[in-house]
Amino acid sequence: MxxxxxxxxxxxxxxPDWAARWDExxxxxxxxxxxxxxxxxxxxxxxxxxxxxxxxxxxxSLYNWxxxxxxxxxxxxxxxxxxxxxxxxxxxxxxxVRGHYQAGVGVGLYSEGIGILTALSQGIxxxxxxxxQAALKIDKDYLDGAxxxxxxxxxxxxxxxxxxxxxxxxVLESVLAGHPDNWRGKIYLADALADDGKGAxxxxxxxxxxDGKGGQDPPEERRLKDMAQKWVASHQ
Length: 236
Description:
The chain is built from 13 helices and no strands. By secondary structure, the chain is mainly alpha-helical.
């Protein structure tokens, strides 16, 4: 058996029953009944141990999932909760990518919710960079290159004069070279390419998402296909 496969199987077998159930529900998290059960599981575990690494990184990921699907004050509220839960996880296990990554994403979503300029004025940029760079250092390929995708998006979302579209393209093209099926990376790259006057390349990226078969993470894939459709509609 391949070493990585063996490590994965060992990790799976080491999960407590509640975590195994939660991870199974994660595959249907866009269904309200599933999300309600997921939150109940986490509430029960955190009531027993508020510093639980396994519960806190999962809690952060669930908050990030919800924050990513909304805007404004609600996004800021959920992003802040994800940031806080992620920080608890990374404080418990500082060498594990999951706490750093989920906390960093939470900081980013919180910043989008309150407005990037406001976030910069509050000095939040450094908090985002610290967490995402830690995740990149530990495991840049986590979740099909997700830390790299977030890092590439960061350069695009910054306001002038900090904004660096060329750097965003560079980072996102690099991650997609190693993770060609990362649909979020393709949509983010399409945004940067379109902004850089490369509309035809941008449309090809989005079309790849629309044509993609998926199957690894159905809720995320449904969300990204919807994003791709909206992208096409807004770039007619």
